[in-house]
Structure to design on (165 residues):
């Protein structure tokens, strides 16, 4: 059996550890000559909050303001991701064959990651684990855990960097 990986999706959040996760995905991309897709999912505002604000300022004005803010934030996030990708690319030893592609979406992280993975037909999803506290080795981050249970694709979970005391 030959292992063939042509497309890798790496889902990135705003944690400090996520740059390492991107680097790991880039290194995998180098080794397999695969296209790496970097995805960031921005959470949406709770509907109950939106309803309250809509009552105050009007639904049309809120929708316009929300769309404008989401677009601006998405562009800023893309720029930040491109900078991180550049920095992480300089830290790896192999040459990136395919420049990584970046997507930023709004929505539920789990459903959006699965949706983008299906649309791109990726062979692998790379995620970070955000275990915290004393149970650091017992649980994965909730997004990683849900993706593991819901996806039929190969999932690589990059653990948090262990700090030496």
């Amino acid at each position: 059996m030959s292992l063939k990986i042509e497309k890798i999706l790496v889902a990135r959040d705003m944690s400090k550890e996520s740059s390492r996760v991107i680097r790991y995905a880039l290194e995998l991309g180098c080794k397999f000559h695969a296209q790496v897709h970097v995805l960031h999912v921005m959470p949406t505002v709770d509907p109950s909050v939106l309803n309250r604000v809509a009552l105050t300022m009007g639904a049309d004005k809120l929708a316009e303001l929300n769309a404008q803010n989401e677009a601006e934030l998405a562009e800023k996030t893309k720029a930040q991701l491109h900078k991180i990708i550049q920095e992480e690319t300089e830290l790896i030893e192999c040459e990136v064959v395919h420049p990584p592609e970046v997507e930023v979406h709004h929505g539920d992280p789990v459903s959006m990651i699965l949706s983008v993975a299906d649309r791109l037909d990726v062979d692998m999803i790379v995620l970070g684990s955000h275990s915290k506290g004393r149970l650091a080795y017992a649980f994965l981050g909730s997004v990683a855990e849900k993706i593991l249970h819901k996806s039929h694709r190969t999932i690589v979970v990059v653990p948090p960097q262990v700090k030496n005391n």
